Amino acid sequence: MTTPTPTAPTPPFDIAALTRWLTPRLPGFAGPLTVEPLQGGQSNPTWLLRTECAAWVMRAKPAPTRDLLPSAHAIEREFAVLRALQGSAVPVPRAELLCEDESVIGVAFYVMAFVEGRIFRDASLPGLAATERAAVYAEANRVIAALHGVDWRAAGLAGFGRQEQYFERMIARWTRQYRASETQPIEAMERLIDWLPRHIPAQEGASADVALVHGDFRIDNLVFAPDETQAPRVLAVLDWELSTLGHPLSDLAYHCMAWHIEPGVLFGMAGCDLAALGLPTERDHIAQYCRRTGRDMDAVLAHWPFYLACNFFRLAAILQGIARRALDGTANSPRALEAARMAAPMAERGWQIAQSQPRHLATA
Q: Cα angle vertex 302, ends 301, 308, to 5°?
């Protein structure tokens, strides 16, 4: 699923207590248990649980703190959506157990199956042949289209989120989260907080275009089959913490931010020679999605700057939350401070896009 970090610090919980809790509940589990941290994710600590015969992954809330933001670290929502998607067209790890009793190891957690495969951290896919890069993105496109086609009512997710005024609620929520974690003023965030509510596309207030959205659909949240001789195939979509019922084009725009972010800390591919690398252009990727979902390309592009700007705003708010946790000493990732410094640049990029002409697309 993901790879252990180079060093394996002692877990901040009692492994013996976890072993006692898992033994009668997790099929096939028998100690002794070893625990290693996994790379990926800035929010919920993730651990590889290994015994002599099997392996699982545990996602936990951060160590208890009174400063946790409202609605953050909702591992029970992750568990619920994993359970709902079992056997669907969207591949996910098998959800095993949820423990909301913090007396067990000090925090709530859930356990899911470990999925062996390849994870590509960098959106430009270094190390792959040009033909394989194209195939990786085509497969990612197929999976996000399948996700937005899930019958969420039939999957038991009718109560997973409100079904109206998604953008109003999204902007209001991330404004609150940003205010709660603000460490210094970011002028572009103030401009976006003012601009975004006044530019929500008129038709987006209705509940007709509602889908199950991932909220963090990046290439590095996909586990690809380990067999490099076969066409790339997604075995599992990871990190469902931000999933909800929402607008599918917002989810697509978040996925497409990689075309607008420079290589570096956030592993974007803006400025890369896409043709030489075999990577699709943003326009081609959107067109492929539209063919799969039956959407009109012109209608999608008409409000594309809004969808992108809204997601850059949200990403900046998320990064600001990481900055706050880094200052408080509760950040999960060792690269938290490095990522946190990107909050202002992402807000500024969002504001630039907000001011752009309609149908703004990244150029290769």
A: 65
Asked if 360 contacts 353 with a C-beta cutoff of 8 angstroms, the reply is: yes
- The percent of residues above 90 in pLDDT, for the chain, comes to 74
Of 98-102, 208-212, 223-227, the range with the lowest mean pLDDT is: 208-212
DSSP 8-state code for residue 72: -
Residue 58 backbone dihedrals phi, psi, to 5 degrees? -115, 130
- The DSSP result for 239-269, as a single string, is --TT-EEE-HHHHHHHHHGGGGS-SSTT---
Beta bridge partners of 99: 109
- Burial call 221-240: b when 16+ CB within 10 Å, e when fewer: bbbbbeeeeeebbbbbbbbb
Rounded to the nearest 10 degrees, the angle between the axes of helix 248-256 and helix 166-181 is 50
Evaluate the omega torsion of the peptide bond into residue 64 and state whether it is cis, within 30 degrees of 0: no
Is it the case that residue 57 has pLDDT exceeding 80? Answer: yes
Task: Using DSSP, state whether 101 is helix, strand or coil.
Answer: coil
Asked if 262 and 255 count as a contact pair (C-beta separation under 8 A), the reply is: no
Domains of the chain listed by start with CATH number: 15-113 (3.30.200.20), 130-354 (3.90.1200.10)
Task: Report the relative pairing of strands 109-113 and 95-99 from DSSP bridges.
Answer: antiparallel
Highest mean pLDDT among 7-16, 86-95, 351-360: 86-95
Beta bridge partners of 55: 50
Q: How many Å apart are CA 349 and CA 341, to the nearest integer? A: 14
Q: Left, alpha or beta for 73 (phi > 0: left; psi -120 to 50: alpha)?
A: left
Reported in sequence order, the residue ranges of the chain that DSSP labels E, i.e. its strands, are 34-37, 46-50, 55-60, 95-99, 109-113, 211-213, 222-224, 234-237, 244-246
Q: How many alpha carbons lie under 13 Å from residue 347 in its C-beta half-sphere?
A: 24
Task: Please list the residues that pair with 49 across neighbouring strands.
Answer: 35, 56
Instruction: Quote the tokens at residue 177.
Output: 């989260």
Which helix (H) or strand (E) segment holds residue 175: the answer is helix 166-181
